[in-house]
Structures are given as structure tokens and as C-alpha cells.
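Q: Hi! First time doing this. I have a protein sequence and I read that you can turn it into a structure. Is that right? Here it is:
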Amino acid sequence: MLPTSRYTRSTHSCSVQSTDWLECILRCSEDNNCVSYHFDMVKGICGLNSFGLSASFSSCDSERLVYSEGVVFQQLRKEKNQVQCLSEKTCAPELNQAGGESCKAQVLRTSCKEIRDKGESHGDGEYTIKTPESTEILVYCDMTTDGGGWTLVKKTVLTSKTPNTLIVLSTNWRSISQYDDPKLVIQPAALKELRNRLGFNQMRWFCYKKSVNRKVHIMTKATASGESVIRYFSESPPVPAKACISFQLLPDDTSELARNCDGWGGPDNFDEWGRRDRSGETRVQYDVIRWQKNGISVNHFSMYPGQYLCDDGALSITSVNDTWAYYVR
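A: Yes, that's right. Below is the predicted 3D structure, encoded as C-alpha cells:
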């Protein structure tokens, strides 16, 4: 099948970063489980698919493809063990007949964690999940860190030394599909709705700045103290959450922040997440952590437009590829 300007709707694909179309073809051809691929020439993302289309390209197949300029789809192998719908349309084996007329997509999972738990992970990348009310949404899953199963809520990678200062506040949980939009600021209401759908009980934060050369990488514990942190960031009005008993360091954390949690908070309350005088609708990303290092200087974790801080203070230098992210599981 020749390349087309389409991509597949199906969930069971492995998304890998690749700036070269030929590399994407080679990755698929060398993987015996890869039947087809789609390559996004703008984002440089290569999707390796374990499914394909029938030779006759039926209407059942057409439902599995979406037209998208700049994305190419190509099937390299015939899909194994294709079966028949009652309407005599050919579908992949993981598809089921629905009402005798069309084919229904395979079972979608409700979170990155469920994908991991079901043994259906294909590594870090984008997956489609379905919420309890049957809403489908594209999310990014980290299937590596601490056993995987993390759903990315927000990620900012600076593309300029003078980073974005524009702000778009969002109370919509579906905003996680725009996880790499630098303008987007997730509000507590959105995080609460996301939790109602994904049922997560942990949060994780990461940042790295070249000028600081230290990483913040911590996650909440799956305990009552960790639960209080999630409630602080998602419930209104917020109830202050204790810091030191609520989280643990990931192996690559090299920060001063994580090792001085007894000084978090302020200016008058300590050993707490955030800060009481900035616990409004932007607290999910603004001054997530504040540590009064001494009587004068303050270190922060903040991924708010115009306030990109990572184990440093307000006068710090930003660089291209400085990174912030937070996840739920």
C-alpha cells in the first residue's frame, strides 16, 4: 500500500520520536509485529501499528483512518487472521461486529495505568484512552518512570531564551490532550475532573534548567499524606498539605528543593506545599514549591508562563530546552 495523508484511529500503536521518514519505515520493517506505520512530518513522531487494512479497503477500514495533512500512513505487511463482520466487511481480529452493519473499535482503556496493568504498553508515547462516559481522548503516557503508567498533564519545553508569557487558563480536563501548549495553565477544577475520570492517586513533578544544572524529580506517596497533596491541588477551597511526609525522590533527583522540604511554604507557614498567599486558581503550576533557602533568597518549582523556575529564584537565566512537566497515576 502506497503512503497516504492519513493516520489510524486505533490505540495499539507505539509512538516514537523520529525526525526521519525513512527511519520510521525501517523501524516498522524490522519489527515483526509492525503491520503499518504513520509518520507526522511536522512533529517528527513515528507510530508503529500492530494492525492494518483489508485489501478491498472497506467502509469498516475507512472508519479507522483520519485524514491529516502532513501525516503519512503506509501498510507494509498483511494483517494476520483477519475475520469477517456479519455485514461481510473485513476487519482486524481485535474488532467486533456491532449490529451486523459496522465494526466497533477494540476496547479502549481508561488511563495509562490501566494500559500498563493490562500488559498493553508499547513504551512511552501517545495513546487513546476512553473515560467512563465514553469520551475518547489522546494522551501521552510515560511507561518507563517508576514502572510506568503515568498520564502527562502538562509539559513545557522552552524553545527560546525569552519564553512565552501568554496565559490561557483552563478548567477543562480535556486540555491534557494539549499537554505541550506553553500558554495553557491547568486550574484545580480541571485536575479534579481529570481525577474523577482517571481515578489517579499519585502526582509527579519534573524540571531541569541548564543554568541551574539540577533536576527536581519527585512523586507523591500512595498514602493518606500523598492524598492530601492531590486534594490541595484539585479541591476548592484548598486545605494546606504537609510536605515532608507526602513525597519521595526519584533516582535522578539532584535538587536542593527536595532535600529541604521542612522549609517549603511560607512566608509564615512551613513544611507545606505551595504557599498560602498564592493558593488561588493558578496554584497547580505557579509556586508549586517554595523554599526560603535563607533569610533572603528563595528557590521554587514553578511552570507558569513568565515564571519558569526550577530549584532557583526569580533572577535565574532560562535556556532553550529547559523542561518542566507533571503527571498523574
